[in-house]
Amino acid sequence: MISRRTLLGSGAALGAASALAACSKNSSSSTSGGLDTLTIMAPVLTGQTPAADGKLQKAIEDFSGKKLAMTWVPNSDYGSKTNVILAGSELPELMVIQGKTPTFVRSAQAGAFWDLTGRLEKYPNLKPVDTTAAAVKSATINGKLYGVPRLRDPMRTGVILRKDWLAKLGLSMPKSTDDLYGIVKAFSERDPDGNGQKDTYGLIIPKWPGGYGTASPYDVFETWFGAPNAWGERSGKLVPGFDTPEYLQADQFLKKWVDEKLINPDFATLDSAKWNDPFFNGKGGVIVDVTSRGQVIGNLFKQQHPSNYMDYVAMTGNLTGPSGKLYAYPTIGYAGFISVSRQSIKTEAQLDQVLQFLDKMSSKEGQILENNGISGLNFTPDGTYSVAIKGGDADVVTNDTQSFAQIGTNTNGFMGYTAKPAIPAEQAFYEDRLKFQAADFKSAVQNPANALVSDTYTAKGAQLDQIIADARLKYIAGQLSLDQYQAEIKRWHTEGGDQVISEMNDLYAKYK
Amino acid sequence: MDADDVSNAAKRKVSVLTKLNHYKWLYLMLIPGIAYFAVFKYAPMYGITIAFQDYLPFLGYSGSPWVGFKHFQALFSGPDFPRIMGNTLILAALHVLITFPAPIIVALLLNELRIGWLKRAVQSSIYIPHFLSWTIVASLTFLLFGLDPGPITKVASSLLGHQVDFLADPAWFRPLIILQSLWKGTGWGTIIYLAALTGVDPNLYEAARIDGASRWRQMWHITLPAIRSTVVVMAILLTGNLLDTGFEQIYLMTNSLNRSVADVFDTYVYIMGITQGAFSYSTAVGLFKAAIGIVLIFGANWLARKSGQSGLF
Predict the structure, then answer these.
(1) What span, in angstroms and rounded, lies between the C-alpha atoms of B103 and B109?
(2) What is the distance between the alpha carbons of residues A261 and A269, in angstroms, rounded to a whole number?
(3) B8 and B100 both lie in a single domain
């Protein structure tokens, strides 16, 4: 009988397995009971992988009292590498899991990871606080928590506009979707760049890689109009957003924008990596996306106009819809989990040690180490800001923080520093952003189904959601009539959606 | 079976053993090759078993539950199958009708060129696109056929009098795919036909000219029969890959507006398997496609032999 372990003969599997084996050669600990070394697999987002004897890793080891054997996997391969590792025999003790993928959900339900439900509360720095409790709850899967969630900003939606165009046309910042319509119309028709030609448009939308309910500009507009954020409760039942009249109303509104040529004509094909280009090059003037994009765009202008780069970018938060009420579009609030393998961590006592490590790293000091680095070596604190120190070792540590931030969980809230903006205008821009994000969060439309995973959805969800996303785009582009669009929504129901709805409602009743 | 046959069979058996002994060093040298195929080609086929399981990486091959033909049933009765099969077959038919004969025609044209340096220059320049990846081909297509800057889109729109959106209009998806395949593959495809053409005895042409045959007649009666067997072999090989429409090319050209004509088996397997984690289902789909490929290649070979050609095996 050939065991499953020996059969993963593909090159990728061997490579990953040997990398892990190399990393875990010091840690025979998982059988002996004591845990001196922790093996951790995490994604690396920068080009340079932290060295095992790097200053930051040493500092983290000294602080936590554990040796670390890190396996850094490039972010782009992380998903497929995770599947390979799950099939192998050498599971790292801790694994960053990037989201509730069908593979993760089914593996977790089959017993691959420790169930941490109710355990975080026993550790002072892992225990959720008021601002994070909702996000930790959405990270559960049908009432069970299969990892320490990695919390992120719960509200990041913003409208980014060309500040110089607004100034030139004498327009003020938008408060409602109707205001924004006036702005995109003016940006398209009143020559905001002053070159005498009608060669600009208002809103810029790229080809969206995800399906329905993936924080696309379309999803955001629908929520602003009052439609649920993916799922919502309507007369006591969970319904998908696209079954509500507000949803169609928002799409009709956007279709009008396309018909009046207020959106870039290639919105179905524009490469999402080039989303900023039309904005920066003065072809389009509005982007609806996460607020950090405003910062990125500001930095693009910085190279061209070092002294007044913040004169080109203005940003505001969520807009009110036709009803005049604010429905803000939040994020899911977390970016996957750090999950603990049940194959490598065998006993409750070992699990306790692992959670103690994560607890320590989630303390203020631990968070600063992971997110900012070593105070006095690569940064100096300045209030809530950090001022970077440049050169030599400092640059290496700063680079390493980008990787170690990936094992930060922040379930007790983020306590690290933010990089200090270069000029007062940028600092004002940043502080304004924090203010409107906090205000918007109070009106956030949460997805009540975030913590629910239905079997049919796990099996067919991506395919089903694509039906909606494609039909929505075809309708907005004018390829489908409203009737045909509704027929496609009906197809979602008949091809498995009705099953999903009934399963979701059962789960909702159980785990609400 | 009569006595003669039996004794013949016995003789063959003896002679096989003698041969084995006679060429033992050659057979020994064959072992690394066989080992390569056994380890890297045949052993991984064990993985096909997951098409009959509800495979989960964590449970492994032996631990995942056995479900028989469930995934095949789901495929054939599912709503996606007719659309994907249709799209794949239409693209395959277009490849057979357009991209397969293209290199033959180009090779014949090149063969008629009598200026040596021009022929070599043309040959070399039409090989180049073969070495570009599909990503680059797709980027070029986006630049030329996009809306911005899109020189070809601008010209086409002014000629037709209305805005054409090559990249998003489902009607333009297949023409673009075929155009890309022609641009990338035609030049490279000519190599094998040109090689066959160099094997033609120049005396034949000379004799034909003396008999007063025109260029056209020479091509019809000498050149084409000379490359016929090559064309047949290439055609058989093509049928084996008929349903391989290519993943990268299609995936890069797909968007929400043209997906209805763009979904083919190769992209479907990717979406179901990699993005949705339905490993077993996508393996079943891939296995079905491979089975069709085997049937087609044996069928084409049988047909070729039936019609008096040499066939592949």
Answers:
(1) 10
(2) 16
(3) no
Decide if B167 and A463 are in contact by the 8 Å CB cutoff.
no
Q: Please indicate, yes or no, whether residues B164 and B95 belong to a single structural domain of this protein.
A: yes
**Cβ–Cβ below 8 Å for A102 and B58:** no
Q: Identify whether A140 is part of a domain.
A: yes
- A-chain residues near B56 (CB < 8 A): 103, 106-107, 110
CATH number at residue B170: 1.10.3720.10
Count of other CB atoms within 10 angstroms of residue A404: 24
How many domains does one find in chain B? Answer: 2
Residue position matching structure tokens 């109710």: A118
Same domain, A51 and A112: yes
- d(CA A265, CA B164) in angstroms, rounded, equals 11
Burial of A39 (0-12, 13-18, 19+ CB in 10 A): buried
| Vertex A465: Cα angle to A459 and A466 (nearest 5) | 110
Would A455 be classed as within a structural domain?
A: no
Nearest CA in chain A to B167: A269
Q: Residue B221 has which token pair?
A: 């009666």
**Crossing angle (nearest 10°) for helices A245-259 and A482-492:** 140
Give Cα B10 to chain centroid, integer Å.
42
**Full domain range(s) for residue A124:** 11-152+333-416
Backbone angles phi, psi at A460, to 5 degrees: -125, -5
Q: Which residues form the domain of B194? A: 70-306
What three-state secondary structure class fits A509? helix
The string of pLDDT tens digits covering residues A5-21 is 333 333 333 333 334 43
| Claim to verify: residue A167 and residue A312 sit in the same structural domain | yes
Please report, for residues A17, A107, A153, the alpha-carbon distance to residue A41 in angstroms, rounded to integers and kept in the order given: 12, 17, 23
Mean pLDDT confidence for A254-265: 96
Strands A231-234 and A334-340: unpaired
Tokens 């938008």 belong to: A174
What are the tens digits of pLDDT across the range A470-506? 999 999 999 999 999 999 999 999 999 999 999 999 9
